[in-house]
Amino acid sequence: MRSRTANRSGIVLRRRVTPAGDILVTLLTPQGKLKAIARGGVRGPLSSRLNLFHHVGVQIYQTPQNDLATVKQAVLEGALPSLAQPGRYAFAHLMAEFADALFQEGEFSEQAFDLFAGALRGVAHQPDPEWVALVMSYKLLALAGFVTQTARCVRCGAPEPEHPDPLGGQVLCRACAALPPYPPESLAFLQGAVRRTVRESMAQPLPTDQRPALWRALERFVTVQVGNVQSWRQLVPTAVSAMQDTLRTSDVA
Ligand SMILES: [Zn+2]
């Protein structure tokens, strides 16, 4: 086997600087997720280019002995400076954590990249970044094969469930539920989250007071189906207040 060099283009999902001054990055590219290391990168020009949410073109070098590719060069292909705004940063960060948890190397490639890139642009530019994040979270989940069951109660199978499922983030029938039903708009959102286009969902934002319950359902659903998205609770202000209710009544650590 020989060493090889390749050019890839992708968005920085995750960035960590090691004590040695290396930068470990995870990129989402149209060919799938890619992890790489920029050795000594924190002291050079790569440092500012390999920033979170940057779209970069990288030249990577891979040896058969090491499964972590080395970044030799990086050029900035696109940036969304408005993502640094406090009201947008948290949602962009959540989208990146989400994409990192959902997509494996080589999987769901081009569609996942396009959807994630669109989600970041929406969070950067739309007047309601929280709504973009909710809509796109369900879209990303569906693309990865995780769909909330809304046709039947997840516990007993009864048709047309309407109540929140505080443990699994699915939907329960009246007999199985302990919480009051979702408002009709929230229920319609959950039922149509996969089928509706992004454009249709964006045109029908839910009132803000209905969103904490959906963030909570999403958090439970993702935790049960995908695994913990690490910084979830620090990231989304509304989700944090919603989570505090759950923390009081369950063993979520
Ligand atoms: Zn039931």
TrEMBL record:
Q: In its keyword annotation, does this UniProt entry include Ribosomal protein?
A: no
Residue ranges of domain DNA replication/recombination mediator RecO N-terminal in the record? 5-76
Concerning SUPFAM superfamilies, the annotation shows: ArfGap/RecO-like zinc finger (SSF57863), Nucleic acid-binding proteins (SSF50249)
Q: Which GO terms describe its cellular component?
A: bacterial nucleoid
Which keywords does this chain's UniProt record carry? DNA damage, DNA recombination, DNA repair
GO biological process assignments: DNA recombination; double-strand break repair
Pfam families given for it?
A: RecO_C, RecO_N
Among InterPro entries, the record links this protein to: ARFGAP/RecO, DNA_rep/recomb_RecO_N, NA-bd_OB-fold, RecO, RecO_C
Functional note:
Involved in DNA repair and RecF pathway recombination.
Family classification: Belongs to the RecO family.
By its UniProt entry, which PANTHER family does this protein fall under?
DNA REPAIR PROTEIN RECO
What protein does this entry describe? DNA repair protein RecO
Instruction: Give the organism the record lists.
Output: Deinococcus arboris
What gene, per UniProt, encodes this protein?
A: recO
